[in-house]
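Rather than argue in generalities, we have chosen a single entry, letters for residues, whole numbers for local backbone shapes, without further comment.
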Amino acid sequence: MMLLAKKLYPLLIEGEVELSHNVRVLILNSQGDIRNALKEVGVDSKGLKIMAPKAIFRTIKLEGLDARQANVLKQEMLSCGGEAAISKTVYDLTKECTDAILMGTIAQLVRLCKKLMRQPFGLEMISKEIGNALKNYDIKTHVIKTGKFELDLSERTHIMGILNVTPDSFSDGGSYLDTAAAISRGISMVEEGADIIDIGGESSRPGAEGVGLREEIERVVPVIKELACEIDCPISIDTYKTEVAERALEAGAAIVNDISGLRMGKEIPELVAKTGTLLVIMHMQGTPQTMQKSPHYECVMGEIMSFLRIQAEVALKAGVQKDKIIIDPGIGFGKTREHNLEIMRKIPELKSLGYSILMGTSRKSFIGTTLGLPVEDRLEGTAATVAYSIVQGANIVRVHDVKEMVRVARMTDAMVRG
């Protein structure tokens, strides 16, 4: 480690040094952090406006540029004082397209966007895409509304309690198949601090068999109807079937949580737009029956984000308002342990899309394989993933153990959100 430090910092001073200026590296993750730090040293309002965008570095990836776009992009980024990495094949003409990585401060990237607006080859549109990604990444979370409910995601992390009305879910299958037991559990989760109750009538565990439309409706609708009269928080229906979603909303649900990401329930966007409810779009590779049969990605985050971007656009075109869309990268749905861990590390990349983020890690198999523990013994592992999800930018966490995860979330919020 010391040898590496000497190579990186050749002027590193060895031996005793009199420390009189309390030098330290600051952790500044947002414009708000930067502004507060600058204010502490007495910078005036004009200085804040000039310096704050120079203090945060961003690295942006773009995919599928042609050679003309890539070359102009690199030249313009260098002229702004930043850096751009593109494939060497663009120079030797062995390949017609490339991805690119831009590296620079927010101020440099903003200047780049202004320059690209005057360039040909479709770079004006690329400028807008870069600008949107920057804006989305730094945008403040907001209040989202569904029916009579308001969820202030800027105030704190919200807890979605899992209520599976199924005989075969991977963790609690059979526990709440009885309507009375399900209602009692829903009430107790709210008492423990849940902000949303997510009710599902079909198991989505790996290899699970599908459930008929009528049976799924008979499982969830009576629970939703009675529970909606007993609790004062929104109920979510976990389904990819339009007919189930419609009956659930009529019974009192206020959120549609589609694990297929609108691939199976083609009319769900129109239903959500018409009713003004919230929509969760989740990524899943394959189906519950096939998703864990050797899942493979060329670039796991790139493919997940491309899917979520496209499916969110489908919802927007159907009339769903942007602030009513929530995205979920689908931990455990067509992913290996390594895929899931990579997603956890890269949650902040999802912010580039500009939607609220839901993470569902509770008791998942990647926790079990990492710790060597069965499903009923994954509380601490779940707590670690919930805390980390919040640190990384999740707005909603979907959990089985509500009481414990509410405590984890509140403590993490106190550190992250202040």
